[in-house]
Amino acid sequence: MAKSKSKSKNRRRKKRQRREENKLKREEKKMAIPKRLSEAMNSLSKNSEWGGHNVMPEEILDPDDWRLQEIMKFRKGLKLREPRRIKESEWRIKQYFHKHNINNPFVQAYILRKIEAKQSTILEITGLSKPEYCRHIGVLFRNTGNYRQLRITDVEAVLMQEKLSDILKNTNSKIKE
Predict the structure, then answer these.
(1) What was the pLDDT predicted at 118?
(2) Burial 82-112 (b: 16+ CB within 10 A, else e)
(3) What's phi and psi for 34, nearest 5 deg?
(4) Over the stretch 34-52, which tens digit does the pLDDT of each residue have?
């Protein structure tokens, strides 16, 4: 009886994982650059209408130009999707920790700080309070000179691409000091 329950649990878990993977694939397809936007950007480049890297399309194109409308529509879509992307990145980071059996919030915070995540991001993901974080993790990174603060989507990308052993390199020397 116990084996059948664990088998059904595993099946449900695998099914849930497949659903999430399919959902992510659909999202990636949505994030592809739309064909009309590509055409608009290409036409600007072909016709030499583009002023340079620091010139905005709004300065060059008329407000009723189809190319400007496509660019603005894409920007609006990005802005609307951003909160959802942040939540999904947060969820995937938590899943990463769960998958690698990293359940201690202080260890999670240390790893996130090691890859230069923002403090607010670390606190949100780990559930630590600010005083706990400062007392246990912040002291390890004082005077390191690393003040770069990655956005949560960048943190997720680093976590997924780097090996955990590479991230934690030189950890023992840091803790012993």
Answers:
(1) 85
(2) eeebbebbbebbeebbeeeeeeebeebbbbb
(3) -60, 150
(4) 788 888 888 877 766 666 6
Q: Can you count the helices (H) and strands (E) in the chain?
A: 10, 0
Give the residue from 29, 46, 38, 125 showing the smallest Cα distance to 81: 29
Q: Residue 26: what pLDDT?
A: 67
Distance in angstroms (rounded) separating the CA atoms of residues 117 and 121: 7
Q: Round to whole Å and give the CA distance between 140 and 134.
A: 9
CA dihedral over 171, 173, 176, 177, signed as positive or negative:
negative
Q: Which residue has the tokens 């059904």?
A: 8
* Residue of 176 and 118 predicted with greater confidence: 118
Q: Which two tokens stand for residue 106?
A: 């202080």
pLDDT digits (tens, 9 = 90+) for 67-83: 888 888 988 988 888 88
Q: What are phi and psi for residue 103, nearest 5 degrees?
A: -100, -15
Please give the backbone phi and psi of residue 109, each rounded to the nearest 5 degrees, phi first: -65, -40
Cα 88 to Cα 65: distance, rounded to the nearest angstrom? 35
Tokens 């923002």, located at residue: 118
pTM of this structure: 0.61
Average pLDDT over residues 12-26: 76
